[in-house]
Structures are given as C-alpha cells and as structure tokens.
Amino acid sequence: MSEQTPTTTEPLVHIANFRMDFGRTTVIRDLSFDIRRGETFGFLGSNGSGKTTTIRALLGIYQPTAGVLHIDGRPFSPEAGERLGYLPEERGLYKKESVIDVMVYFGRLKGLGAEQARRWSREYLERVGIGEKEKVRLDKLSGGQQQKVQLGVTIMNEPELLILDEPTKGFDPVNRRLLMDIIDDQKRAGSTVMMVTHQMEEVERLCDRVILLKDGVARAYGTVEEVQEQFGGTIVQVDHDGGRLPDSAAYRILSDEAGHAELEAAEGADPSAILRGLVDAGVPVSRFSPTRKSLDDIFVEVYGAESREED
Ligand SMILES: Nc1ncnc2c1ncn2[C@@H]1O[C@H](COP(=O)(O)OP(=O)(O)OP(=O)(O)O)[C@@H](O)[C@H]1O
C-alpha cells in the first residue's frame, strides 16, 4: 500500500461510465460507483442484471466496451490479484483431492507456508463445523460443505479486497449466519468486501452501502437508509376506532379495514405531523407505528414485474 495519506481516502474500487456490450446486446449501459476502503458493499440486482459481468470486467476477465474500472487507482493487474480474494458464482475446486490438501495447495499459491496454511485450514474447518472432513475427498462432501471449503480458500490470505458472488447461496439459516459472521470478521480484520447477494437480511446485517442494478444502470446507490429514503420510505400502521381515516396530502392509504390502516407517508412528510393531523381530525388512535420500507419491499418494487416475467 502507498504510504501517502491522500490515497487512503481514495475508493478501493472505482467504476465510472462502464459499458458492456456482448455483440449487439448492451448488458451494462452507463454504470458508475465506488467502493470505499473498509466497507462492506452490497452489489444487488435481479438475475441477469449484469453483476457477474461487472465483476469479471473489474477483474480483467472481460474487456469493457467503455469506461473505467479501477482497483486501488489502476486497472486490474496480477499484483492487485495477489491482494484479492474472489469467490466466483460458479464454484470449482479439484474434487478428487482431500479437503486439507486442496486448502494447503491454494494457501501455498497465495504465499502462505505449508504449515501455516495447514494450521489456518484446520482452524477454519473446525469453525465451519466440518473439522472431521479434512481427509475426505472434496467430491464426497455435500454442496454446502464444498462451498465452505471454497470460501475458506478465498479468505485464507486475508485479502485486502474480497469479492464474493452469492457466498451463502444454498445454505440453511444456521450456516448462513455462520458464514455472515465469517464475512463480518473479514471486514473487522480490515478487508473491503464487495458482495453479491439476493438475501436482503444479509444486506441489512452486513452492508454499509449498496447499489441496485437494473437494465444496466444503477437504480439506487447509497447506504441502506438512503436507499430506503429514496424509495419513499415510511409505512405507518394505525389502529383506530373502526371508521375510515380521512384523506390527506401527507399520506396515501394503502389499506383501511376493521380499525386497522396502513399508510404510506408522502415524501418529506413527518410521521409525528401525520399523527397530529389524525388526532386534530378527531380520530381516536390507539396505535401509531411508523416503520421504514424494508429492502425486501424495495427489491420487489424495483424488480417485481421483471422477475415475474423471468419466472
Ligand atoms: N460472455 C457472455 N456472452 C454473451 N452474453 C453474456 C455473457 N456473459 C453474460 N452475458 C449476458 O449478460 C447478462 C448479464 O449476466 P450476468 O451473469 O452478469 O448477470 P447477473 O446479474 O450476475 O445474474 P445472476 O444474478 O443470475 O447471477 C445476461 O443476459 C447474460 O446472458
């Protein structure tokens, strides 16, 4: 790493005006975003929206049609590759070898000593609950167990930048939490993490900032709160006397039945002003509970029609 202070404030990943055509098909139109050092960044989008393509272009696997894709101020280079861990969407390890042999082999490729790699691997396998499998051939493990080994191989040299394409795909909830803890530990140890996921629970738990990709452009970009703000934000649950709530410019009534109403606050409307308005209008309110629109709701709003088409 450079010793000049200004570089540390530069983003670790910088993508500007990225365009990617495959033949006559444009997959990415004009995509720009940064990933700051030390953050966990959620790279979100529906199936086929171009996430893997962007990662491949960032890693020099694809040549971009136009635009800038930089890691640490430069296009991808073998040197940058040494400080990077990439868990690709399509997993692939040498399946005829034992778990420990595969892990030590990759550890050595990444510059660890054999003993160091063996020690690290054993500790990791214990942590992810497959310590007793170290001598088993990889193809005798379940899909989830193989994925755990591959994640281990990806993080074993404590990379500065971790790029994880759906790291918890196919895991049960207990193992998903375990993997989330491991990813969080990487961040705590100083890694910058770029993560593709379709699990909004993971985004809410792990990600500092996100981008939502649709039709080759960013539909939203910022912290989870900023994205929630951008998508209209606040839903209010109101229990009242059973009549109909009055109409108001401060909210939209999503439903109102048998004394329970759901309101969507208008942009910029303050929930406490909505409550005051209801009370002033003589509505007996027994519960008033404003909540932010969940990322799940936002995802469905952005991609709903398109995902159904794909189904
Ligand atoms: N090498 C290629 N040649 C032609 N088209 C490609 C190529 N790679 C990707 N595509 C197309 O680009 C689009 C985006 O694919 P990509 O794999 O980047 O999507 P994704 O967002 O990662 O999707 P998913 O969530 O399903 O993994 C798809 O329509 C895909 O068919």
Automatic annotation (TrEMBL):
Residue ranges occupied by any ABC transporter domain in the UniProt entry: 13-240
Chain coiled-coil ranges: none
Membrane-topology annotation of the record: Peripheral membrane protein
SMART domains: AAA (SM00382)
UniProt cross-references to InterPro entries, sorted A to Z: AAA+_ATPase (IPR003593), ABC_transporter-like_ATP-bd (IPR003439), ABC_transporter-like_CS (IPR017871), ABC_transporter_ATP-binding (IPR050763), DrrA1/2-like_C (IPR025302), P-loop_NTPase (IPR027417)
Pfam families, A to Z: ABC_tran, DrrA1-3_C
Listed transmembrane segments: none
Subcellular location, principal: membrane
Name of protein: ABC-2 type transport system ATP-binding protein
Organism of origin: Leifsonia soli
